[in-house]
Recover the amino acids of this structure.
């Protein structure tokens, strides 16, 4: 990873909730950055990485504690620009001869207005065009004295040293968080910072594509690669990138476990075979999965059965391809960032998520993960560059266990068919109303209850279903989507009229937490 030719910025993470946002802002400026936790940063690490600039993130610790986290001293001797944010500012001050005080009664959380002080500072180009700049603060401690080489360039009533700099060394430090939306002009600070550090904006998707293709060719040589293709954006982009790099040395395996949505298998297979002429195995294994799931209604048991079978099936098809040395996975950057945990301790398993973890070791394969450096929206723009159609790029996430976790209780083929039909209408409605891209995920759940209804002059006794739609940034928390009553009643009418087997539609208005997005 460190041999990539692009310019790099190092973010040393002290555990702020918003460190990833710093990376997002920088990537928007076409600057490549890597986030690493402070624990792994050594002098040697930095020498090998060769960053053009360093940012010290915020974090929950207090520099006043004896064991407060610190970056290595060497960062101040590299002759490169440094920007400290919040805790990053305080730790810089502590190490460079300033002072930090505990914020007794002066803690600042939320919006603050800054006033400019002293003369010109290149970091602040485009700032203070009106009298005040709005910023977002979140700190308890604050800097109370700065070393003589530093000057203050902006202050708030509670933070006299809100913006400080040592102009001769290009060291900058701010008390607030320029990366959050509540600092509306924050992006300008990052833009100025990377400019003065000499970044040329060489991180673009087309350069990434070229470099990665070259790197994949070198890494893989004339070996063969297999890739599990689900039709989701991550696995699709992984497959397309590899296909472009190594052509027929790549075989994709699409496992149809009988738990896919209406027309899903056909759409995915057709798209990849016709448009890309790719070697693609369509593993039709619905019998295997649905037989194993017969009579099972416990959510965790269902997940375990599916997870295990998926690996068995994948392995079975992979074994049929001679000379496979690599397994490709669509791992993204947020999955590989080692997060800084101050609380420690294992978290409770809410659901056993389904993935192909453990497969590479079991099969003696090496992993290739061409998207490991990318955020989700970068994967989407790479997909765009690779010609992946918009309907694939913008797709809502679909879980590995598929419709099994949208069918509480026992899974049967008739129930799955009813669910598929209702889901297709619901998504069609969402698309027709132009809401698809506003929603993180939307789907129907078929409930394990039947209810009495009346259609025409006849009594009905059919399944009830519920509609789920949420907004979210990362799936970790979510709010239910506020559809209009018109939308809901129109959709309910269509489902009841068009889907045989459903006579009642409800809408799930649970957020996450306390609910989860899926029902199981
Ligand atoms: P929950 O239901 O845990 O879901 O709130 C959060 C997000 O994860 C998806 N999900 C999965 N994705 N394998 C996956 O690849 C799984 O086993 C799995 N379970 C849930 C879910 O659809 C939502 O986007």
């Amino acid at each position: 990873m460190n041999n990539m030719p692009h310019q790099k910025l190092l973010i040393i993470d002290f555990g702020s909730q918003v460190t990833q946002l710093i990376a997002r802002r920088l990537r928007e400026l076409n600057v490549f950055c890597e986030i690493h936790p402070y624990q792994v940063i050594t002098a040697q690490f930095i020498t090998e990485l060769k960053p053009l600039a360093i940012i010290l993130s915020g974090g929950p610790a207090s520099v006043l504690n004896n064991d407060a986290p610190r970056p290595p001293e060497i960062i101040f001797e590299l002759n490169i620009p440094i920007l400290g944010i919040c805790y990053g500012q305080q730790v810089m001050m502590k190490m460079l001869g300033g002072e930090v005080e505990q914020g007794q009664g002066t803690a600042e959380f939320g919006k603050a207005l800054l006033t400019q002080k002293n003369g010109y500072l290149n970091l602040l180009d485009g700032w203070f065009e009106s009298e005040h700049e709005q910023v977002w603060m979140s700190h308890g401690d604050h800097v109370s004295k700065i070393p003589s080489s530093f000057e203050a360039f902006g202050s708030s009533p509670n933070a006299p040293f809100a913006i400080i700099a040592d102009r001769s060394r290009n060291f900058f430090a701010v008390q607030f968080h320029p990366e959050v939306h509540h600092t509306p002009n924050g992006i300008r600070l990052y833009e100025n910072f990377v400019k003065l550090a000499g970044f040329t904006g060489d991180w673009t998707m087309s350069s990434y594509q070229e470099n990665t293709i070259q790197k994949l060719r070198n890494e893989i040589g004339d070996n063969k690669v297999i890739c599990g293709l689900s039709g989701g954006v991550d696995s699709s982009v992984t497959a397309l990138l590899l296909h472009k790099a190594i052509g027929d040395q790549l075989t994709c395996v699409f496992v149809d476990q009988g738990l896919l949505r209406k027309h899903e298998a056909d759409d995915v297979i057709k798209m990849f075979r016709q448009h890309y002429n790719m070697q693609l195995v369509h593993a039709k294994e619905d019998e295997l999965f649905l037989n194993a799931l017969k009579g099972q209604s416990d959510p965790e048991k269902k997940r375990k059965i599916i997870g295990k079978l998926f690996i068995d099936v994948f392995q079975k098809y992979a074994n049929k391809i001679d000379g496979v040395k690599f397994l490709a996975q669509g791992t993204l950057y947020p999955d590989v960032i080692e997060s800084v945990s101050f609380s420690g301790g294992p978290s409770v398993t809410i659901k056993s998520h389904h993935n192909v973890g453990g497969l590479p070791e079991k099969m003696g394969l090496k992993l290739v993960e061409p998207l490991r450096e990318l955020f989700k929206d970068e994967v989407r723009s790479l997909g765009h560059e690779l010609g992946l159609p918009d309907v694939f790029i913008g797709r809502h996430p679909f879980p590995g266990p598929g419709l099994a976790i949208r069918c509480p209780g026992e899974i049967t083929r008739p129930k799955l068919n009813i669910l598929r039909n209702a889901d297709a209408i619901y998504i069609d409605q969402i698309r027709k109303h132009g809401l698809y891209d506003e929603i993180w995920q939307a789907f129907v759940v078929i409930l394990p209850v039947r209810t009495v209804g009346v259609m025409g002059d006849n009594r009905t006794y059919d399944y009830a279903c519920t509609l789920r739609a949420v907004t979210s940034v990362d799936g970790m928390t979510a709010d239910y989507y506020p559809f209009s009553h018109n939308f809901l009643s129109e959709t309910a009418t269509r489902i009841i009229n068009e889907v045989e087997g459903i006579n009642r539609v409800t809408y799930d208005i649970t957020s996450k937490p306390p609910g989860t997005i899926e029902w199981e």
Summary: The first strand starts at residue 8 and ends at 13. The CA atoms of residues 384 and 393 lie 7 Å apart. The chain has a mean pLDDT of 92.
